[in-house]
Design brief:
Rossmann fold; PRTase-like
Length: 187
Amino acid sequence: MSDPAAHGTHPRGSGEADRARKLRELADDLSASRGAAADPESIAADWLTRPGVLRRLAGLLATGISPETDRVVAIGAGAAVLGCAVSLASGLPFVAIAHDGPSAADDGPSLTVFGRVRPSETIAILSLFDEAYDDVRSHLVESDVVVSGRQVVLVPHSTANARGAHDPGSLFALDDAQHITPRKEET
């Protein structure tokens, strides 16, 4: 019997198995580099300042972007770094929207926006953590954009399970014991 890899073909499903392996390896690295910090900014700094972790994370997120997407919008903690890395991996321009805290006028959160979305653009929303979306939703609605998809790097395990099929595309879940595990592990 001949070896399929020797002829440039791969057995059916090898791509899914490779992706599952990469997700498991990245989950281990995210857990190891997370440190004891619990706040999103500290966790983002732990993850996004490590080139190997950032490169693999950006690559996985880039492969999940829909082909009709015009622009990547990274939101929340580490948005500028995450947006730039995914932009480089995908070839798409990016916008970064970070939360600065409550505004003085009590009209919602104060946001720092780096870049610009244009009306009728199709965007992919990316964030390290799930809670970032609520803070920028009104900004995106006002921008009159079409959302092609949303990917979140880490959600609490209980949140991911509650969403089930309606999960926004999370890569990893954080269980009660604070272990990070792949959310979409294809076999």
